[in-house]
Design brief:
Its EC number is 2.3.1.30. 45% of the residues lie in helices and 14% in strands. By secondary structure, it is of the alpha/beta class. The chain has a six-stranded mixed sheet with strand order 3-6-9-12-14-15.
């Protein structure tokens, strides 16, 4: 048994750590044993656990847990990049969120992580031209988590959505890798225009709480969007913008704003 556990750790250290944390949690809080076994310890892989957890959270009288789990299993089997992105998101949350000190927390409790993984399955459906099912999943994600991401939006990996309440991302939005997004952020359009109408967010960007980025504009890599800002024009790379409407107020202040999570202007 010890040899098998060592092999699991060597092959998949992330999943091995998740299982170890879950076992510790069962010892510390036996009343959580059923939930921890059902959500994590009864599964052989991270993708199996995520398929179960997401289907449980998104099931409704209109769509059963079994159907949603089958869809998630199909998505993970068809596109390995989905679970690669999930792992990157998991590490991002653990590294950037000071409230997170275990990998099991985002999987079990953080709606930002859960909503992002559910969106990824919806985006897989969209690419398969299963549009109605993708829209249904978008609806349930919004109802269950309070986060509205259009399934056509393109979102990179290593995404951290802190608190995540009331985040809106439009259908032609593009979000790069290693981006951190706080609560009440909107990546939206400016009116009733059609076509390519939503923001393009570069790698390593930090978007502060309540920021609104509107229109088909580029936000350069490793920039900072201050909390409460309304961004209507292109943001140069490695800068900080603030205000209504937002203006450049200085440099980003560090090489990777989304990782440092420093939101204080002037530092």
């Amino acid at each position: 048994m010890a040899k098998a556990q060592k092999n699991i750790s060597e092959i998949d250290p992330v999943w091995s750590r998740i299982c170890h944390e879950a076992e510790e949690a069962v010892r510390d809080e036996p009343l959580m044993g059923g939930m921890l076994h059902g959500s994590l310890l009864h599964h052989a892989s991270l993708e199996g656990a995520l398929a179960y957890r997401l289907s449980l959270k998104l099931a409704s009288p209109e769509m059963s847990e079994q159907i949603l789990r089958e869809i998630a299993d199909q998505a993970y089997a068809d596109d390995p990049s989905l679970i690669e992105a999930a792992r990157a998101d998991l590490v991002a949350v653990n590294e950037r969120d000071p409230a997170c000190n275990r990998y099991i927390q985002p999987i079990l409790y953080f709606k930002g992580f859960q909503a992002m993984q559910a969106y990824r399955i919806g985006h897989w459906l969209w690419k398969k031209e299963r549009f109605d099912m993708a829209f249904f999943l978008q609806m349930r994600i919004s109802e269950a988590f309070g986060i509205d991401i259009h399934p056509a939006a393109r979102v990179g990996k290593g995404i951290m959505m802190d608190h995540a309440h009331s985040i809106v991302i439009g259908g032609t939005a593009v979000v790069g890798d290693n981006v951190s997004i706080l609560q009440s952020v909107t990546l939206g359009g400016t009116g009733k225009e059609s076509g390519d109408r939503h923001p393009k967010i570069g790698d390593g960007v930090l978007i502060g709480a309540g920021a609104k980025i509107l229109g088909n504009i580029k936000v350069g890599r490793c920039s900072r969007i201050a909390a409460g800002s309304v961004v209507l024009h292109e943001v140069p790379p490695c800068t900080t913008v603030a205000g209504v409407p937002a203006k450049v107020v200085g440099e980003a202040g560090c090489p990777q704003p989304s990782i440092s999570m420093n939101q204080v202007i002037g530092k």
